[in-house]
Amino acid sequence: MSRKLRMGMVGGGPGAFIGPVHRMAAELDGKIELVAGAFSQSAERSRAAGVSFGIDPERAYASYQELINTESKREDGIDFVVIATPNHLHLPVAEAALRAGIAVMSDKPATATYDEVLRLKSVVEHAGLPYGLTHTYAGYSLVREARAICASGKLGPIRKVAVEYLQGWLSSPLEQTGQKQASWRSDPALNGPGGAIGDIGTHAFHLVEYVTGLQVTSINAALRSVVAGRKLDDDCNALVRLNNGASGVLLASQVAAGEGNSLRLRVYGDKGSLDWQQQDPNRLRVKWQDGPEEIHHASAGYLSADSRAVVRLPGGHPEGYIEAFAVLYREFAEALASWKKGNRLPATLPGIEAGVRGMRFIERAIASNKTESWVEF
Ligand code: NAD
Questions:
Q1: pLDDT in tens, 43-54
Q2: Handedness of CA 155, 158, 160, 165 (dihedral sign)
Q3: Residue 139 contacts residue 206 (beta carbons within 8 Å)
Q4: Residues sharing a CB contact under 8 Å with residue 271, sequence separation 6 or more, in sequence order
Q5: Residue 285: pLDDT above 90?
Q6: Under 8 Å between Cβ of 333 and 32
Q7: Is the pLDDT score of 180 beyond 80?
Q8: What is the DSSP pairing of strand 375-376 with strand 216-224?
Q9: Residues with Cβ < 8 Å from 126, sequence gap 6 or more?
Q10: Which among 77, 66, 276 is positioned nearest to 162, based on CA atoms?
Q11: Distance from the CA of 276 to the center of ligand 1, in angstroms?
């Protein structure tokens, strides 16, 4: 396909956090253009947003239903829709789009509940269309390198993982001030039943399975709502077991005062280990039991082909969050453009299976917390 893919967006209106990141990332590689959207639950704000983004004002719709109904009938209608709304809308928007023949790129978590994701999985399978899930960290070059190192067996059998995702922004009852992002995240009806465990725990969980290639088989999680009056968990300490016998620790907290977006993964084999930190994403530390510590730099010639395939700049020119997001968009766009020729989403791009795993993780962590015991996946 020689033309750019046409993107519609649901969410991402004025004051939104991740919508603007999606727009920047989607357009970074010149394969996608924003042409339509339902950017807000307010028709007026959606139109105003559309104008500010420079799209045809007629294609800034009052609702996602109008977006999908109208765009699916246009000859030059959208090729896919991106979902950047609070979680309770992920299933209805994805389902409406897929049933209308429109591909979907959704933000995580895939849905608000585990039951919903099972329904979504069957809708995706029935539609036979691309469904991508923006687990951002899968787009980092050195996360791809960590994944390649684990797959190579160089670390030896994986024995232990330690993943932590620590933020401090919900250390006070921010939702009580009406702050946009905190308000819906603290409301089970809009967010789903998992607070920090759903919002950031799912990223940590995904990173473990994505990098190691292993699956979590059981969990023992302690969830707390540290801030008085908060309806959902804001702190999680969990132990996990993996399907090769390895064990691990998963921490997810939004009341870790002073922390920004501190995601860190450490993986230990019997010969060596690796350590990647999101706030220092262009360096991967690899430590050997019988050798010196190595620091692998993004874009270096010695990295794996999978890692080098997703960098845009020579070494020493830092890439970060938006570029990682854009890697996922590039992979999605390439698959979508050649979908009719039988191409499919690459294994490097999270999709509906990752969505199901993430929702299972939330559901199992809550069940474990309730029974104060280990639960199987
Ligand atoms: P936000 O509150 O900043 O933005 C949500 C947007 O959705 C707002 O513009 C709001 O007006 C719009 N919206 C709400 N109802 C709507 C409707 N009915 N129709 C159209 N638009 C509607 O939230 P956010 O922090 O940007 O999070 C949005 C989603 O992105 C969540 O699912 C969140 O989990 C996810 N997220 C993912 C990452 C990541 O790293 N991949 C980071 C942040 C957020």
A1: 999 999 999 999
A2: positive
A3: no
A4: 154, 155, 156, 288, 289, 290
A5: yes
A6: yes
A7: yes
A8: antiparallel
A9: 98
A10: 276
A11: 27
Sign for the pseudo-dihedral over CA of 182, 187, 190, 192: positive
Q: Distance between CA atoms of 347 and 336, rounded to whole angstroms?
A: 14
The three-state secondary structure class of 349 is coil
Question: What is the band of 270 on the pLDDT scale with cuts at 50, 70, 90?
Answer: very high
Q: Which band of pLDDT confidence, cut at 50, 70 and 90, is reported for residue 340? A: confident
Specify the pTM: 0.97
- In single-letter form, the type of residue at position 274 comes to L
Pocket of ligand 1 (CB under 6 A): 10-13, 16-19, 38-41, 64, 84-87, 89, 107-108, 134, 136, 180-181, 184, 199
Residue showing tokens 């991967």 = 284
Please determine, for residue 1, whether its predicted confidence score (pLDDT) is greater than 80. Answer: no
CB 261 within 8 A of CB 164: no
* Mutate which of 9, 10, 18 for ligand 1 pocket (most atoms within 8 A of beta carbon): 18
**Residue among 184, 106, 152 at smallest CA distance from 354:** 106
Host H or E run for residue 146: helix 141-152
Give dist(CA 88, CA 76) in Å, integer. Answer: 29
Q: Is 320 helix (H, G, I), strand (E, B) or coil?
A: coil
How many other CB atoms are there within 10 angstroms of residue 43's CB atom?
A: 14
Number of Cβ within a 10 Å radius of residue 336: 22
Query: What is the 45 CA–ligand 1 centroid distance (Å)?
Result: 15
Q: How far is the CA of 264 from the CAs of 82, 161, 284, 319, in angstroms?
A: 27, 11, 11, 17
Question: Please, what is the angle between helix 352-371 and helix 202-212, to 10°?
Answer: 120
Q: CA-to-CA distance for 366 and 358, rounded, in angstroms?
A: 13
**Across 122-148, average pLDDT:** 98
- Sheet of strand 5-11, all strands in order from the earlier edge strand to the far edge: 32-38, 5-11, 80-84, 103-106, 131-133
Name, in order, each residue with C-beta under 8 angstroms of 184's C-beta and a sequence gap of 6 or more: 86, 190, 191
Beta-bridged to residue 6, according to DSSP, are 33
User: In whole angstroms, how far apart are CA 60 and each of 26, 239, 325?
Assistant: 18, 46, 24
